[in-house]
Design brief:
Blueprint: E1 10-12, E2 22-24, H1 27-36, E3 44-48, E4 54-62, E5 66-76, E6 84-88, H2 93-105, E7 110-115, H3 126-140, E8 147-148, E9 152-153, H4 154-159, E10 166-170, H5 179-184, E11 191-195, H6 203-210, E12 215-218, H7 227-241
Helix pairs in contact: 2-3, 2-7
Length: 246
C-alpha cells in the first residue's frame, strides 16, 4: 500500500497547478485556511486539483481575511485509478452523502444518479454531491475526484450503453451465487456498477438490464443490504477482482 502524508492538511482547488503558480483563494477557502486551520502567512499546505498531482504550497496572507497559495514543488505525481463508473438510484440526503464519500474512497471515476421506477429521491443536489466527493478526497489522500454526472433515467442510460463497458448490476436473483465467480468471468476493461433503489428494480427494469449484452448479475449474498451498504460491498468486490486492488 502506498504511504502518503496524512499529517498535513490538504485542499482541493479547481485551477491548473504548476511550480511558481499563485492561486487566489475564494473567500470560503481563505476563511477555512486562516480561521479554521489557523494557518498564518508562510505556513504550508498540500494542494491538488484532480489533474496535476499534489503540490506543496505556501499560504500568502492578503489583508485581514484574504489569502492566496504559492505552489512550491510537486509532492506526488497524478495517479489514475480504475475506469469504474458508479450508477445508483438517489437516496435521501444523509445516506446519499455517505454513499458519495465511500464511492470516492473506493476510487470511482464517475458518479451517475439513475432514476428508476422505485426511486425515492428524484431531486439530486449535484453541488452537494461534488462537495462530499471533494471532502472525501481531501481527507483520504486521494488525488482523483470523480466526475458528477447529471441524473438520467434508467431507460435512457441503457439505450445509450457503451458496448465496451461491462455493466455489473446487483441482483438478489442472480443465477451465480458466488460474486467472485461472477466477476472472474468478466473480461478486463471499463466497468460500471449499478445499484437500484431501496424497493429494487421493477420486473420490466430488471428485464431491460439483463437484455444488455454486457450486463453481469451480481449477488451480494443471502442478506438484504441497504443501498449505501450494497455500494461499499459491490465496489469492494469489483476492485478486488477486476480493479486496482489486484
Amino acid at each position: 500500500m502506498a504511504v502518503h502524508d496524512f499529517t498535513s492538511q490538504r485542499l482541493f482547488v479547481a485551477v491548473p497547478l504548476s511550480e511558481g503558480a499563485r492561486v487566489a483563494c475564494s473567500p470560503e477557502q481563505a476563511s477555512y485556511l486562516r480561521s479554521v486551520l489557523r494557518l498564518a502567512d508562510g505556513d504550508e499546505i498540500l494542494v491538488f486539483n484532480g489533474r496535476d498531482g499534489e503540490w506543496r504550497a505556501r499560504l500568502v496572507a492578503e489583508g485581514k481575511r484574504g489569502a492566496s497559495l504559492e505552489m512550491l514543488d510537486l509532492v506526488r505525481a497524478q495517479t489514475g485509478g480504475p475506469d469504474l463508473h458508479y450508477l445508483f438510484a438517489p437516496l435521501k440526503r444523509a445516506r446519499l452523502d455517505y454513499m458519495v464519500q465511500k464511492a470516492t474512497e473506493m476510487g470511482v471515476a464517475r458518479l451517475v444518479p439513475v432514476l428508476t421506477r422505485h426511486t425515492l429521491a428524484e431531486r439530486v443536489n449535484l453541488d452537494r454531491m461534488r462537495a462530499n466527493a471533494i471532502e472525501a478526497a481531501e481527507q483520504c489522500g486521494i488525488l482523483r475526484v470523480p466526475e458528477i454526472a447529471e441524473p438520467i433515467k434508467l431507460t435512457r442510460l441503457l439505450d445509450g450503453w457503451d458496448a465496451s463497458r461491462t455493466l455489473v448490476f446487483c441482483d438478489e436473483a442472480a443465477e451465480q451465487a458466488s460474486p467472485i465467480a461472477a466477476l472472474s468471468a468478466c473480461a478486463p476493461g471499463p466497468l460500471a456498477v449499478l445499484i437500484g433503489p431501496e424497493g429494487g428494480f421493477s420486473p420490466d427494469e430488471r428485464a431491460m438490464i439483463r437484455a444488455v449484452p454486457q450486463a453481469v448479475a451480481l449477488s451480494l449474498g443471502p442478506r438484504i443490504m441497504r443501498a449505501d451498504t450494497a455500494a461499499v460491498a459491490a465496489l469492494a468486490l469489483v476492485n478486488a477482482v477486476l480493479g486496482d486492488w489486484r
